[in-house]
Amino acid sequence: MVQQTVASQARDVIALLKRRGTRKGRDGMARYGLPSDKAFGVSVGEIQRIAKHLGRNHDLAEALWETGWYEARMVAAFLDEPGRVTPAQMDRWCKDFDNWGICDTVCFHLFDRTPHAWRKVAAWSRRRDEFGKRAAFALLACLALHDKTAPDAPFLKSLPLIERAATDDRNFVKKGVSWALRLIGRRNLALHAAAVEVATRLAASPDATARWIGKDAVRELRSPAVVRRLKARGA
Predict the structure, then answer these.
(1) In this structure, what is the dihedral angle of CA atoms 88, 45, 30, 69, given to the nearest 10 degrees?
(2) By Cβ atoms counted within 10 A, which residue in 32, 150, 195, 214 is the most buried?
(3) Cα–Cα distance, 122 to 117 (Å, whole number)
(4) Mean pLDDT of residues grouped by 10 in the chain (235 residues)?
(5) Which helix (H) or strand (E) holds 47?
(6) How distant is the alpha carbon of residue 231 from its chain centre?
(7) Cα separations (Å) of 75 from 68, 94, 141, 204?
(8) Are 225 and 234 in contact (CB under 8 A)?
């Protein structure tokens, strides 16, 4: 049997996604603020099933990303091999982020598993574009959620990045900043105390966006359920 080239594999995946897409799916994307002009309307569940069937494949992930199709880029996030992802690739993909769905999926399922993740949090927090900057804090939130062995130090070091970005009133940036702050505060009691301190300071800020982020985080982190869970873990 002749082995398929990566290019032909990518064409086959695009053809499959096109067959699985629906008008209803595209209309649903629009309701959630996702661009549907270069999308087929395939559900996330179906995308995950396709990716699982294909298996990990770095080269195919890169080829699918380059097509620019929404669902192809979603498949790429599930296909790629974290150990083969380079810092240059992360920067290249980050520059392509143009919606929260792709940004969050790539950070949640791929980028936070790479050895370069922490460096990109700091670097991307200085980006000017909305989704590139969101990626910094989405990635930080994902590290807080998924990296169970990370010490407290890098999270504490990231809190000034959160404060610095807290006055950015763009919707997807401020929600990313809030997400990161809240998840850092849920890791353990020490980080909880540090995050609540930052959140309290932001809640008293004269800036409306910073106040929103601070109050949102204080409300969650001081909730009895969160405090009880942290104390129960002895974390």
Answers:
(1) 40
(2) 195
(3) 9
(4) 80 97 93 90 96 97 98 98 98 97 98 97 98 98 96 98 98 98 97 98 98 98 96 82
(5) helix 44-54
(6) 28
(7) 12, 16, 22, 42
(8) no
What are the structural domains, with CATH classification, of the chain? 1-80 (no CATH), 100-235 (1.25.10)
Query: Which residue type occupies 137?
Result: F
Distances (CA, A) of 58 to 6, 66, 81, 82: 10, 13, 5, 9
CA proximity to 136, closest of 208, 202, 144: 144
b/e sequence 191-217, b meaning 16+ C-beta within 10 Å: bbebbbebbeebbebeeebbbbbbbbb
DSSP H stretches of helix in 55-188: 58-67, 70-79, 87-96, 100-109, 117-124, 130-146, 153-165, 171-185
For residue 56, give the DSSP letter.
-
Q: What's CA 96's distance to the chain center, in Å?
A: 14
Tell whether the torsion through CA atoms of 105, 110, 112 and 113 is positive or negative.
positive
**DSSP one-letter string for 123-151:** HHTT--SHHHHHHHHHHHHHHHHH-TT--
What's the pLDDT at 233? 85
Task: Give the pLDDT of residue 1.
Answer: 37
Rounded Cα gap, residues 177 and 144, in angstroms? 13
